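Hi R.,

Here are the chain sequences for the assembly we discussed:
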Amino acid sequence: MMKVVEGSYAVAHAAMCCSPDVVSAYPITPQTHIVEHLSQMVADGELSAEFLTVDSEFSALSVLVGASAMGARCYSSTTSQGLALMYEVLYNVSGLRMPVVMTVANRALGAPLNIWNDQQDSVGARDVGWLQLYTENVQEAVDTTPQAYKIAEDMGILTPIMVCMDGFILTHVYEPVELLDKDKVAGFLPAFKPEYVLDPANPKTIGAFADPSTYTEFRYLQFDAQQKALAKIEAVAKEFQETFGRTFGGLIDTYQTDDADIVMVTMGSVIGTIKDAIDEMRAEGIKVGLVKVRSYRPFPVQALRKALKDAGVIAVIEKDVSIGNEAGLVTDLKAAFYNSKIRTPIIGFTAGLGGRDITVKDIRKITEKASAARKGIESEFEFLNLRTEILP
Amino acid sequence: MQNLLAPGHRACAGCSMPTIVRLILDAAGPNTIVVSPTSCLEVTTTPFPESAWCVPWLHSLFENAAAVASGVEIALKRFHKEANVLVIGGDGSTFDIGMGSNSGMFERGHKVTYICYDNEAYMNTGVQRSGSTPFCAHTTTTPSGEISLGNPRPKKDMPAIALAHRVPYVATASVAYPVDLRRKVKKAIETQGPSYIQVNAPCITGWTFEAGNTVEIARLAVETGLWPLFEYVNGQLMEVKKVRRPKPVEDYLKSQGRYRHLFKKPGGTEVLKQIQAIADANISKYCLVD
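And here is the predicted structure of the full complex:
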């Protein structure tokens, strides 16, 4: 039964359905409602878990290092500055192969201080060894949560996951959602039984240092686990569909791409707006489509080559910027195509930074620019709707 | 004595730290889980694929051991298991970079015994000053020089910080008093809630002395009043190690290269008086002399 609930509640409920042993988090806008709802669920006895309120995001994730080493299923949630404060621990959780699941309520980073949505936080953390799945609406954020545990806890993968949902746009929206059924999730997601834990009866050293003779191999194994996750993400999405009857794609998803000449590529909640714009343009006879990147890490190179091989022109729209060189998704996409036969023009747009709205009109503008780029690229990368009148 | 820290570790000959850790583990026993921050202890005992640890041991970062140990402790609670949870780390992580994490663990009241082996500087990275470095000690970042007499600030009072968090068991100990150290570790792990022990840990390379003098130097620290041995239970000072006839601080200072400049440079005599005043204040505060 569909229920109209707040996005944060829906995601907290999804986390609760995964029966985490330990939850540790630190409040930060726009993630706060997620941890408030989880706290209430613990207070009401609805969720039987150890919930730890801590002194910082840095400590929140550090607590989960200890708990995960004990074999606990762990959950956290953060955003923006909080994710930045966790940076050192992010590398530790992935390097120690701890399958922590964390919801990232995507938000801009300061300075200048800005609490609104974009994806600079998690895209900036693409190299820390975590898997990253981006969601387009509340239902997908809900459904991706148990999928994330199933992928992360796979013995061949054992890699933490960020489930990314746009701050405010998804965390604070009230929309109809099919909440998960706890028993059904228990059937879909087996109990977490790690092989190596801290146990006085069988003492293990966890976190030894590696010198130049072994360090590369530790990193290789993480790299290999991410490659294995490519198939696992697809498989788990299918299993979820079989059990729950819903899917939002595996590594990627497509919309109206079959005969599309202009294809947009993006991640997150802007997809709803783009789909509306596509419907409008299709009605006018413009052959436009969309490829949604659901898995940004691992980056689905083969799936993207296949989905985009017939496109006439590609426009990447993303809510992040690599200050100094374009932005994450467009750079990765170009790299994915370089050694293939695909020579489709690709142009990149950074849009929606710091919560600036992206409208159907903006998407149409991007489509027009993409259409023109077929005849020769004028600008490879640009800030959409740059307010030149307020620049110095 | 149980040997829960295996031989073959890579600590310097004459280092006090392995002796301290062996004493701690002997008192705690095998039903113990240890979390260590980045430190000499970590790098000398766990070069992959070797480990000197015969109890479960976990290392994450320099500044998060207390938070990691909090996670270990709540997971024990979650799984209805019992084990001693110990943090064993140096003064850099304890006094400086891990302060936020320590404060959080103390304040949340986890049943974690935090033991600092205090060698009074960042020894692992080559003897840089920490918040624990004593007044006018030479380190590589507070060197004595033409216009400097070493570290310009006195040592941070970390036990007082633990006490301000209402940590129910706070004690100091010394490698020169092994029976006392063992007893305190036992008392700490029996405490319901957090406990904090700070152990004086002479470092041959940082303090510069002959490898055979480790215990003697630690004993002099106690006998001069510069390292008072005390024990607070529920905020009350319960026990102190009495010093019959306190020795002058010079006896302790001249045994180590880090204070050598005080005996050579102009202004050194004045500093010696100030350090004697620190010892005298300890003697009076903790009633070290009957």
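Residues 268-285 of chain B form the longest helix (18 residues). The interface with chain A takes residues 30-33, 35, 42-43, 46-51, 53-61, 63-64, 67-79, 83, 100-101, 103-104, 107-108 of chain B (CB under 8 Å).

Let me know if anything looks off.

Best,
T.
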